[in-house]
Structures are given as structure tokens and as C-alpha cells.
Design goal:
The chain is an alpha+beta fold. It folds into two domains: 62 residues, no CATH class; 69 residues, no CATH class. It is 27% helix and 19% strand. The protein contains four helices and eight strands; from the N terminus they run ααααββββββββ. Strands 1-6-7-8-4-3 form a six-stranded antiparallel β-sheet, with no helix packed on it. Helix 1 crosses helix 4. The protein is elongated.
């Protein structure tokens, strides 16, 4: 790898770090870049070229150097208090809001949730909900403690912890 290419890669990573540092509300609700970005955003940012170790190091750095919402990272304009730069499917509260792609009949411990926005989430805890039948219900996935996410289906008075897999 040439010095020029290496410097360019470091520059791109530094820009990403600044963007995501300003966009992260605080370390307690940190989610990895893979969870926050769509596959196309992840690839467009060049993050798919990082090794698993490099990506883990970047996520760890972002978690430890998060800038509270509404403040600016050095050299950047202050972020809108509720905005998260580059997170198009998220509401101002940081939640992902979309519809399930197809019919929802509940969950059973390892259920996959395919969203119309292209994201795929998987149930990350045991638990079962049965006896429901909703066509393309609206779902809200909200950040929880320690980087966790909770999925709520409109019309259902229950939540389940999930993790993003795509």
C-alpha cells in the first residue's frame, strides 16, 4: 500500500469518526456502525473494506469518544439536537421506524424481522408472542441500554430485544 493511499484511508476514517461522533447521542446507547447504517451506506463509506479487527477498533473508538447530541465535534457545525447524520431511517428520537415486509404472526425466540426499508433484525432474547395476524404493521425499534435495541409492533403491547443482521 502506498503512503498516499494509506493517508487517504486514514482521512476517510477520520471524517467518518467525526461524523459518527457528532451523531451518537452518548455511549450508553451506542450501536455499532453496522447496526446504524444500511448496507448501501456502509459500502458507500468504504467500511466494507475494513477487516473485522479494524471495524471493531473503529466502533470501540466511536463508543469511547461519543459527542453528546447538539454539540459539535472539532471543526464541525453543531448538529441539530435530534438529528443523527447519515441515519435516514431513524426518527428524531434515534428510533428506526418502518413497516414489516409481509404478515406478522408473532415471535418465538429467533424470529427474523424483514423491514420494508431493507433492514433485517433478529430477536435477541427468548420469548414468545402468538395469536396475532397483522399485515405489514408499523414497527419502531428503539435504542436501549448498553447498545441494545427493542422492537415494538404497532397494535401489540409487547416488546422484544433485537439485533440488526442486515
Amino acid at each position: 500500500m502506498t503512503i498516499r493511499h494509506s493517508a487517504c484511508r486514514v482521512g476517510v476514517l477520520a471524517a467518518l469518526v467525526l461524523l459518527f461522533s457528532a451523531a451518537t447521542a452518548h455511549a450508553a446507547t451506542f450501536s455499532t456502525l453496522e447496526e446504524r447504517m444500511s448496507a448501501s451506506q456502509f459500502k458507500a463509506a468504504g467500511l466494507d473494506k475494513l477487516s473485522p479487527e479494524e471495524l471493531a477498533a473503529l466502533n470501540a473508538w466511536l463508543q469511547g469518544n461519543a459527542v453528546p447530541a447538539g454539540t459539535a465535534a472539532p471543526g464541525m457545525a453543531p448538529a441539530d439536537a435530534g438529528s443523527r447524520i447519515g441515519f435516514r431511517e431513524q426518527s428524531p428520537t434515534g428510533s428506526v421506524v418502518s413497516r414489516l415486509d409481509g404478515t406478522f404472526t408473532g415471535w418465538d425466540g429467533k424470529t427474523r424481522f424483514n423491514l420494508e426499508n431493507g433492514q433485517v433484525w433478529e430477536q435477541a432474547e427468548q420469548g414468545t408472542v402468538r395469536g396475532v395476524n397483522f399485515d405489514r404493521p408499523m414497527v419502531t425499534i428503539e435504542p436501549g441500554l448498553f447498545g441494545s435495541w427493542k422492537l415494538k409492533v404497532e397494535g401489540l403491547n409487547a416488546t422484544t430485544r433485537v439485533k440488526r443482521i442486515k
